[in-house]
From TrEMBL:
Domain PIN stretches: 28-158
Gene3D superfamilies in the record: 5'-nuclease (3.40.50.1010), P-loop containing nucleotide triphosphate hydrolases (3.40.50.300)
Family: Belongs to the PhoH family.
Sequence segments annotated as region (Disordered): 1-24
Any matching Pfam family: PIN_4
Native source species: Pontibacter locisalis
Protein name according to UniProt: PhoH family protein
Domain of life: Bacteria
Residues of the signal peptide: none
Keyword Transcription regulation: no
Keywords from the UniProt entry: ATP-binding, Nucleotide-binding
Amino acid sequence: MAKPSKNGSQPKTSKAPKKKNQDTNQKKIFVLDTSVILYDHSAIQNFQEHDVAIPITVLEELDNFKKGNDIKNFEAREFIRFIDKLSAEHKLQDWLPLNGKNKGYFRVLMNDSTEMLDAVQIFGDKNDHRILNSALKLQQEKPDHKIVLVTKDINLRLKARALNLVAEDYETGKIQDVAGLYTGNDTIEDVAPNIINELYEKSQCDVGQVLKAPPADNHFYILKSFKSSILSFYNTAEKQLERVDKLTAFGIKPRNAEQAFALHALLNPQIKLVSVQGVAGTGKTLLALASAIEQRREYKQIYLARPVVPLSNKDIGYLPGDIKSKLNPYMEPLWDNLKYIQNQFSETSKEYQKLRDMVDLEKLVITPLAYIRGRSLSNIFFIVDEAQNLTPHEVKTIISRAGENTKIVFTGDIYQIDTPYLDSQSNGLSYLIDRARNHPLYAHITLLKGERSELANLANELL
C-alpha cells in the first residue's frame, strides 16, 4: 500500500531544554499592552501561575474603544467588566488574585517615572512610551522577577528591547508551524491500477485498500498509478473513499484538482463549515459564491461579507458621502465576482435575470461583516471573505451564531494580512484551519494555482 510522505523533524540542541527550565523556575510578571486586550479580552487568564499587570494607560486607551459594534469594542467592554468585578472590594494598585486554580495575581501599574531609563524622555510623550515606563518601573521594583512586556505591536517590542526590557508577542492561539498548516489534500503515488478502476466504475472503494492509517475527516486525495489518476474524497460518514467529479456551479467550472475539491466541499450538504485558503487569483471567493447561488433553493438567504479594513489604515470616515457610499469601495471585489458569474450568461437569459432578482429581493446580500455580528444565522449560506483579517475570537463568534440549516465558508490568504497586530500565525483563518481539521462537519482546501490570468500569476510568483 502506498502512503503519503512525511516531513522529517529537525533535532533539538541539548542547550535549549536547560534554558527553558531556567525560565520556568523564575517567577515572571507579564505586562500587557492595549493591543493584547483588544485581541483577546481574557488574555490575563492565560499566563498560568505567573502574575499579570497592565499600565493605567491601557485602561485609558480601552475607554476610547468601549463604544461601537466592532469586535475590538466588544473585547474592550468585556475586559473592563472583568476588571470591575475582580476589583469590586479591592484597590487596583494591590496585587489581586486571579480567579482559577494555580493562577497568579493581577495589578494596575501607575505611570510613575523611572529613576534610570525614561522612555518618555527618550522617545517622546505618547501612550506607548508611558506603557514602557510602567514596565521599566516594575522592573526596578521587582529585581528578583523577570518582567516581560507582552504586545502585538512589533515596533513597541523593538523599543522595549532597546531599553533592555524583555518583550514578547502574545502567543495564545498562535500557530507555530504555518508552513506545515493543513492543506486538506494529499497526492498518493503508486496506487494499484485496480483501485483506480474500482473508483471509476463503482464511485467508491474501501479506504483500507489505499491507506494504512485512518485519514482525516473529509480529506481529499489525488490517487496516481503508472498510467492514470483520479480525484477522491474520504467520506467520513460512510468510511469510504469516493470519486470526486468535476462539478459545475452556476456556470463556473473547476480548472484544476484543488478547485474541484473546493467545489465538492462547498456543494456537499453534510459539510457545514468550509475554509478555502489561497493567494490572489486562485478563485476562492468566486467558487464560494457560485456554489452558494447553485444551492439557492436550499437556503433562505446568501450572505457574502468581509471585514472593512481600510487601505493604509485610513478609516471610512475619510471618504465622502453616506454610509453606503463609504462602504461601496470595500465591497467592490465581491460585486466583481458576482458580475463575473452573471457574465457567464447572456443578459436575456433566465440565469442572468435570476441573479438580478436575488440582489433586488435581498436573497443575496453583500455587506460589511460588522453588520452581521449579533444576528442569529439560520437557513443562511454565509461566506466570509478576507477571513485572514479576523482574529481567532472573531471567527469563533461568527461560527457560534450559526443556527439550523446554515453553512459557513471562510475564504482568504493567510499571508496577505491588512490588519495591524495580526500575522500569518495569529489570524483567525490560520487558527480555524489548525483547530477544526479532522472534524466531520469541516472541510478545508488550499488553492495553489492562480487562474485569474497569466499576468496575475506573474505577480504572485515573481514580485
